[in-house]
Amino acid sequence: MKIIGFESSCDETAVSVLEADADGKLHILSNAVASQVETHRLYGGVVPEIAGRAHIEAISALTREALSCASTAPSELAAVAVTSHPGLIGALLVALGFAKSFAAQNDLPLVSVDHIKGHVAASYLMDTPPKPPFVALVVSGGHTSLYFVEDHTTFRRIGESRDDAIGEAFDKVGRIVGLPYPAGAAFDRLAKDGFVRATGKEEGYFAAFPKCETYKNPYYKFPSAALADGSLDFSFSGMKTAAINLLHRFEQTGTPLEGDLFAAAYTYAAVTSVLKKVDAALSRYEGASLVVAGGVAANSHLRGALSALCAKKKREIFLPPLSLCGDNGAMIAAQGYYEFLAGNVADSTLNACAADDIP
């Protein structure tokens, strides 16, 4: 069975063709992505109207590329999967409208995919995919949430950020530090330099960091984003605001900023906040494995800390390859495959929505 997936929820236009073998194992036949990073870098963030127009310009050629690379004709497809929510409305409507037309023209069933479920579905494309039930952590520029995944299509939200997402917390602060948009990867590298300088360790620097003198400096300590109310929720706005206020204070007083140490301390606060809630979630769901998904799942410090946590708790962890952490069509096709098997087929009235519908 072959399925095509369309994605345009933010600033990447993506089309992918997957094939499920006789055992239900998913294989990527093509995964075409048109990034808009260079365009939005001029503005320091995604401009929704520009993103929508760029999707319109890219999607037809990208679809031809994906089908050609997969050596697949539309008549060989079993279904069409498309992100319908959540995301930027103007951006979502481009792939959704195109997918509806593509499905109608080729007499193919249309499958609606929640973008969040799509991120988790990236793990199904690993050589050894996870089997539900499991706990899923989705961390990106727009989302920081924990889910209990009962089966491939049934998710239950068990924790979330009540304000900013972790990816936004990195990007906004990184921009003020002077890093190019998107700041995530550069912030990751800068933080590693800071960890190594502060601890003198090339390995195990994350665990050693809270014990070093640098971290004891009040300038380089930030509040936790893990809410202390017994929930599995986060609040990254306070941590982000504390960092921005510190940067402004340094600028106003002429205090030199040690960017690498600042990045290390900020990263440590963000990652340990996530660790605390993931630890609590895994304790709540005894024996459950952990799936980590979304753009911030590419952060090397988060990946390392979560891997160490799961090793300590003797739980399996599934970390998709970096190429599948960001938005892509393969993850949408993967989730679409399971939605299709479950009989969740949409009709021509399917519309886009800015919010997700996971309870």
Helices and strands in order:
Elements (H helix, E strand, L loop, with lengths): L1 E6 L4 E9 L5 E10 L1 H5 L6 H22 L9 E7 L3 H17 L4 E5 H7 L12 E6 L4 E8 L2 E7 L5 H12 L6 H16 L5 H4 L4 H4 L20 H17 L5 H26 L4 E5 L6 H14 L3 E2 L10 H13 L18
Parallel strand pairs: 1-4, 4-5, 6-9, 9-10
Antiparallel strand pairs: 1-2, 2-3, 6-7, 7-8
Helix pairs in contact: 2-3, 4-12, 5-9, 5-10, 6-10, 10-11
Overview of the structural elements:
By secondary structure, this protein is an alpha/beta fold. The chain has two domains: 144 residues, ATPase, nucleotide binding domain (Nucleotidyltransferase, domain 5), CATH 3.30.420; 184 residues, Nucleotidyltransferase, domain 5 (2-Layer Sandwich). Helix content is 44%, strand content 18%. The protein has twelve helices and ten strands. A five-stranded mixed sheet has the order 3-2-1-4-5, with helices on both faces. The protein has a five-stranded mixed sheet with strand order 8-7-6-9-10, with helices on both faces. A hairpin with a 4-residue loop joins strand 1 and strand 2. Helix 5 packs parallel to helix 9. It is globular and about 65 Å long.
How would you briefly describe this protein structure?
With 359 residues, the chain is of the alpha/beta class. The protein is built from 12 helices and 10 strands.
In total, the number of domains comes to: 2
Mean pLDDT: 96
CATH architecture field of the largest domain: 2-Layer Sandwich
The number of distinct helices, counting runs of at least 4 residues, comes to 12
Strand content: 15-25%
What is the CATH homologous superfamily assignment of the largest domain? ATPase, nucleotide binding domain
